Amino acid sequence: MSREGLIGTGAVLVLVAGGLAWWAPVAYGRAEQDAYFSTPGGIARAEAAGQMAGLQAALLPGISAGLLVIIAIALFVVAAVRKPQSS
Fold first, then answer.
1. Transmembrane stretches, by residue range (predicted)?
2. What are the angstrom distances between the C-alpha of 44 and each of 36, 41, 51, 60, 69?
C-alpha cells in the first residue's frame, strides 16, 4: 500500500474511533437508566445495577475506539518511515 493509502486508511480509522468514542457515553447513559428503573429492591440496588449495566454497555465501544486509534497510529508511523515510491 502506498504512503497516501496508509495515511488515508489511518484517517478513516480515526474518524470511526471518534464515532465510537462519542457513542460510549450515550450507551452508558441509556443502559444505566434502563437498569435503574427496572431494578426492584431499593435505591442502592438500583444504583449499583445501573452503574454495572452502564459500564458493560460502554466497554465495547470504548475498547474498540482505543484499538482503532492504536492501529491508526501504527499506520501513520509506517507511512512516515516508508520511502516514497518512484514512478
1. 53-81
2. 10, 8, 11, 26, 37
